[in-house]
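re: ur question from earlier - yeah i can do the single chain one, its not a big deal. heres the input i used so u can compare w yours
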Amino acid sequence: MQVSVAAYAVGRGVPDAAALLYFASNCTNLVGGWAYGAWCHGGSPRRRQAATAAGLTLASLPLIFLDAPLAVGATLALTGLAVPVLLILASVLTESSVPRAVLTQAFTWGNSASAAGLASAAAVAGRVVDTGGAHAGFGVAAGAAAVMTVLALSGLRDPSPDVPKSSALLLG
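and the output i got, formated as tokens:
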């Protein structure tokens, strides 16, 4: 997303606007994390993860077509709500699926995979932006969100038990 936001602002001739667009998204990151933490959670963390990933996908799709800075900023703000929720749910699901003795290692693997995914996506988005512009780069983000949604939905079929309530209370 960052590569595409920068390319969008530069393409519009106002590179400084990228900071305002990041600001919109990051402020809603804070609000999204706070609201999710304050909310009394019901239902399965896997279902919440799938729903949040689907919401991120739907929210990011308009970025492929929108051109007005205010509309792009508002849409980036909307996508920003989902990011902290997905991070929290990843931690909750990790904690519930590995033995306590290897929990630190599991979190390390998850963080490393996330960093590798971000770096790879930035490289792909950079190439796509170079050839197709910022909107094509936003398509990479929307595509990644769609893949995440499919993976989260496939996790709903896993017959293993859901996260114990004590785990959900610790991180959510």
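The chain has a mean pLDDT of 90. not sure if urs matches, ping me
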